[in-house]
Design goal:
The chain has a domain of about 50 residues. It has four helices and no strands. The radius of gyration is 22 Å and the shape is flat.
Amino acid sequence: MRIEPKALKEIHDIREKIYEETKNMTPEERAEYTHSEAQKLIKLYNLKIKYENRSGDYTKEKYQQPDSTVEEIDVLLKKGYK
């Protein structure tokens, strides 16, 4: 059995807690959660961090990938394949 250092155990416990809190969230909810937690830390420690406010840049609609099967079929049909 491998002995885990105390600091590493703390990190694993924290990561497990975050996982449990976010496991049922959508990617957008998880991003908002991460952003709000980061803002709390920035205020708590009075950090001077430059960051770009990108809220809304990564919406599902904007970056939704097309269905590759449909796209491939369209390309084949345009080339004359049946």
